[in-house]
């Protein structure tokens, strides 16, 4: 049976690119915009990143708020799981690039971090909002979630150790300062949060807030994933730098008695 290979034949030894084009010694186009004359000096790096990630050139105040969100996802604390990877890289004298890339991968989690978790939270909120708009009550929407220890598992609506998320207040204040109105998804997210707090002692966290914010700006869950793909990198690099200056093998060293061995017993030879 013959297979039509026309599609691949056209691409043989040829790279097709619809997002940008470097013209050596002249210019670079990004989504049909000149990097040298339309973007450099005219937009921020975060605006450029969002343009590359989604194809959309957002207003500066929107990009500024997303940058603030990045700051809230990049704490220089080596106890945070992705930063532990970066700190260990510094401890073993690995390169900073390897440390940063490893930390980003460690944060690419369904339950934690600012990348895959962002996609899941946005998708969940998008579905819940649509169901609510169609008349489904909040209790029924919540019942569809997976439960653990009697509480629903909804990415973006949880408080570690039952503490309020310290980022919510500055997120809201800066959004107001930047004159960005609270959209329908963010209003619904707070409505959902109030219900969860009343019935399950759960409430919205910074990830839930940011997910609703991105939905209000017209981004899809996949857009949110791309935008937030490296959001933890700054804190990770700080932890790499901190550990790099310390003695080798000093990050979380273990003693033999720290290991609970459950394997076969030693043999007599």
UniProtKB/TrEMBL annotation:
SUPFAM superfamilies: Citrate synthase. InterPro entries: Citrate_synthase_sf (IPR036969). GO terms for molecular function: acyltransferase activity, acyl groups converted into alkyl on transfer. This is Uncharacterized protein. It comes from Catenovulum maritimum.
């Amino acid at each position: 049976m013959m297979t039509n290979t026309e599609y691949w034949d056209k691409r043989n030894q040829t790279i097709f690119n619809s997002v940008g084009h470097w013209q050596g010694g002249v210019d670079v186009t990004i989504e049909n915009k000149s990097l040298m004359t339309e973007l450099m000096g005219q937009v921020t790096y975060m605006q450029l990143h969002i343009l590359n990630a989604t194809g959309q050139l957002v207003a500066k105040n929107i990009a500024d708020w997303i940058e603030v969100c990045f700051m809230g996802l990049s704490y220089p604390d080596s106890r945070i799981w992705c930063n532990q990877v970066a700190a260990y890289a510094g401890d073993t004298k690995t390169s900073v690039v390897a440390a940063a890339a490893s930390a980003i991968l460690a944060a690419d989690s369904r339950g934690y971090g600012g990348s895959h978790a962002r996609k899941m939270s946005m998708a969940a909120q998008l579905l819940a909002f649509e169901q609510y708009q169609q008349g489904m009550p909040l209790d029924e929407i919540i019942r569809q979630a997976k439960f653990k220890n009697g509480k629903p598992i909804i990415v973006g609506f949880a408080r570690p150790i039952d503490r309020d998320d310290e980022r919510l207040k500055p997120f809201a204040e800066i959004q107001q300062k930047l004159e960005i109105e609270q959209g329908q998804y963010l209003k619904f997210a707070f409505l959902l949060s109030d219900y969860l707090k009343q019935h399950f002692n759960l409430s919205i966290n910074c990830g839930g807030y940011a997910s609703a914010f991105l939905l209000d700006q017209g981004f899809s869950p996949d857009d949110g994933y791309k935008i937030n793909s490296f959001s933890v990198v700054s804190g990770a690099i700080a932890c790499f730098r901190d550990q790099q200056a310390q003695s080798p093998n000093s990050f979380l060293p273990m003693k033999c008695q720290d290991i609970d061995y459950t394997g076969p017993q030693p043999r007599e030879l």
